[in-house]
Amino acid sequence: MNCSRNDVVLLPIPFTDLTSRKVRPAIVIGRNGADLFLAPISSVLANTDFPLAEWRAAGLNVPSGVKAQLATVEERLVVKIVGKLATADLQLLNQRLRTWLTNEQDDNKESRLNERFVRCQDNLRQSLSSHITLIVGWSVGGLAFCGVLLNSDHARFGRITTLVFMATGALFILCLLLSLFISWNRLQDVRATLKILKARKENGSEETIKELQKATDELGKNTWHAVNFQLFLFALASIFLVVTVLLAFKDRLDTCSCPYP
């Protein structure tokens, strides 16, 4: 069978571990005598480097993509020529081939980006954990101070002072509840991320992975909205606490004798 460049063919291509072969489609990217240089095609888009826009024109039955692999197979093993690569897909394939053939530099760059991303994620988790610990500690301390203030014999609670005092306690309690929500949200985010890793490892569908990624993005947004709202509530609670103290001890401040020299 006479195959030419950009033909889409069916033939037995070996797996990467070379233990077995499977008849699958591939793109002819070149030849050397009786040997063909091929780029395998897969219908599992999660395992491919890029999808084919004109997969029907290539003679394929389902949406497929090109894997970032190269194989050398004897031309006599070709079972059938099913189609030819479209111009748009051919241009993209040529670009990706240049990337694959200089993959070492790209891998180093990607590795550095991944390491930087992991460091940023670790710093982000540590910062968020420190934030939650700090807010919880200060909120508990604020509530404890409110309890001491309530039992103080010198504090005087009028109507306004009581309302401000109750608002202060409610705000600190909301800060604690938001800490629980943020922690739960982060736990759900981690679980969704683990599901993404598992789906990729098990060659899950692209739609499932996209849905999980969308869920993690939404959880991340909700977390940071809650953090910002919690900071606002805590600042408001602190101001209310100061106002409560001033109102509760207003009489003592008014009667305080401060002689001048």
Description:
This protein is of the alpha+beta class and 261 residues long. It has helices at residues 87-101, 103-150, 159-201, 206-248, 250-255, and strands at 7-14, 21-32, 35-42, 50-51, 65-66, 71-74, 80-84. The mean pLDDT is 81.
What's a quick, concise take on this entry?
The protein has 261 residues and is an alpha+beta fold. The chain has helices at residues 87-101, 103-150, 159-201, 206-248, 250-255, and strands spanning 7-14, 21-32, 35-42, 50-51, 65-66, 71-74, 80-84.
Query: Over all CA atoms, what is the radius of gyration?
Result: 33 Å
- Number of DSSP strands? 7
* Portion in strands: 15-25%
- CA(first)-CA(last) distance: 112 Å
- Average predicted confidence as pLDDT: 81
- What overall form do the CA principal axes indicate? rod-shaped
Structural class from helices and strands? alpha+beta
- Give the fraction of residues assigned to helices: 55-70%
